[in-house]
Every structure is written in C-alpha cells, then in structure tokens.
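Batch manifest, entry 17 of 40.
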Amino acid sequence: MNIRRSAAILAATAVAVLGTGAVPVTALADDSSPSASPSRAAPRGLYGSADPTYDGVWRQSLALLAQDTVGVKPAAEAVDWLVGQQCDSGAFAPYRADASAKCDDRTPVDTNSTAAAVQALAALGGHDGEIGQAVRWLKGAQNEDGGWGYQPGGASDANSTSAVIGAFVAAGDEPGDQKKGGYSPYEALRALSVPCAEDGGGAFAFQPDKKGKLTANADATAAAVLGALGQGFAPKPGAGDAGTAAECVGGDDFSPEDAARSGALYLAKALAKDGYLKSSLAGAEDQPDHGNTADAVVALAAAGQKDSTARPLAWLEKNSGPWAAGAGPAAYSQLILAAHATGTDPRDFGGTNLVEKLNATGPAPEETVRSTTTDADEKGQDDGPVFGVWWVVGTCLVAGIGVGFLLSGRTKKQQL
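Output type: structure tokens
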C-alpha cells in the first residue's frame, strides 16, 4: 500500500519528522484538524479540505481508486486535477499549487505519489500516455538493490518498493523483469524480510537500521505483503493468494510468495490479541492505528487469509467512524479498499455508507453503477443509495484525531 503507507504529516497536535525515507502509502491529513495553512482554499477538483501540501496527489489517487472499486465514475474535474499535477518528466510531487508552472530540480517529486497516481489512472482507463511517462520515470529512479526509496536516490524501503510494484502491475509491466544492479523489486523486498529466528520473524522492516538490523514494522509488512504478491493497493479478493502458512518460512532460497505468507502470518498474530494494530508513534503506543489495521486487512485478504480478517474488520466497522470523519478521503478510501478486498459491502460498513462519505468530500461523481464484488451483491441484495484514500509523505504530519494514520504511516520503524 501503504500506507500504507509512509509518511509525513503536519497536524494540529503534533509534528513528527520521520526521516527522509518517509512513504505515503495509506495515510493522510486530518480534515477536522486545523491545517498547516488554514487560510488556503482547497483546490477545485481535489478531495478533502485539509492542506494538500504533503498528500494532495496521494489522497486524490486513493479516492479515485476506491471509487473505481465500487463502480463510481469520478467527476471529470477530479481526474483532471490529478492528471494536471504530473510533471513533464512523468513524476508526481505530493502537491503543486501552481500546476501550470514547470517542474524543476526543486520540485519534490517522489515515488509514492507517482506510483499511487499510476494505479488510479490505470484503473480509470484512458490515460496511457500519462501512465507510460510515470512508469519510465519510476524505472529511472530504481536503486541498485532493485528497490525504491521515497525520493530518487533515497535508500530503498518496503513501502515505496511495494507501491512501485503495484504501479508496474497496474500499467501491465512485469515487476520481476525490472532489474537494477542485477536485482529485481522482489529481491529488494525479500532482503527486508525479518529472519524467522529473530524477534518479529516473518515481518518486514521499513528499512535496515544503521547497523543493518531489520526491525519488524506492521505498516511496512502490510505494504510488502501486497508487493511480494505482485498486487497493488486494490487487490481483488484472493487475487494474490499465496496460500496460508502455519509458521514462518525462511532460508536462502525462499520465494517472494514465501515472504508474503510469512508476513501475513505475522500480521494475523499481531491482530489476534486486540483485533487491531497499535500506533508506533512515540507517546501514542497504546492508541489504535485504524489506517494500519485497514491495510493489514487488505494484505491478509490478498494473501488468502480471509478468516484472519474477520475480527479486525468487525473492529473497524465498530470503531473507525470518528477516525475516518476526522481523517477524510484517504481514511474512507482505506476502509473501502478493506471492504473490497474482503467482499464486504462498503455501503453498509457497520451501518455507514463509506461510498457516500467519500463522495461527499469532493466533486460529485458523474455516475454510479452497481458493484459486483461484495457478499451482498453475490446474494442479490440491494446496495442502497450511493454518494459522492503504503503511504503521505516525505516529512510527516501527524493528525491528532487519527494518530496512527500517517500519510502512509510507513516510516514507522518500531516493532509493534
């Protein structure tokens, strides 16, 4: 994903610098909190009213992708806004206030925003030119170890590498064929898989520490499970089924699928105690991380462990309302993607119509069609009315109301 992400966000209650490798993957600003620039009007066509400086492209891409999964045709102005953010190089920055100005060396383009935009535009169709340019830029930003950092030249991290894998797949490219220094993205992810014999074995680290040690990170794990399976932010239920694992799989020759199975097993165990994941932010370790929990549900479903999603999904249905209302379009999108991955009806998510909530944060959609991916659809039930989100940002902004929902929270390096 993610977030899910990877991230950097500036919010009313806290400012945290998570490092240069921050990744957005499932994370975004808090719409209910005062933004970094409260007087700035939200750009026309953009979802959410919070300052878009750090996550505009990220949250817009997730919103459009989530709408597509539920059969909603976004407003043309929303799609045009995203397309207009692209630089001539093909890359995307988190946000460009003046999209008519040429990008230069000071434009903070990044892999996460670019990969998210590719996935969204590919899902919508009709944007082959923009997608081709973006993919060429991403290929040029690959590191010698086969992976990607948040910004070109930055050390590879699990979230960024996974987001780019998802972009390649969405564009119709085979990620395994894209090699640099003799290594593919899948090999870069395997190198970030914590050895089974170590604490947190089976999980993925965001990055190695300065001594090369790998520390389990649930946010990075949720993202890397999808990446190792060759899946993007919106996998179809069971599309990347790697089979279940009873124990961590290791060894020198373990495959990307083995790494994904081990990562999914780690997530399932981490969720078993409380039914949700906790924040790894300093001072907020006891608070639930709604965004990471939603991303973990998506990863588990994609890995074929739908049984392990029942409890966290039920927890999200019961407890995510206030968080999503505060966090805005990215949060609603994460929840819709979790519902999509598990075959749950996003229009009746614990009594909340997530599609309506998301649509209401931006321009009214052009069209809504019946979704065919939920359990309710399979039973021929009526969806009801419809209405109008691995990873954000380089330097991270943390919202008070959804503490733990980092613009991709993916810079979290502490173990749960």
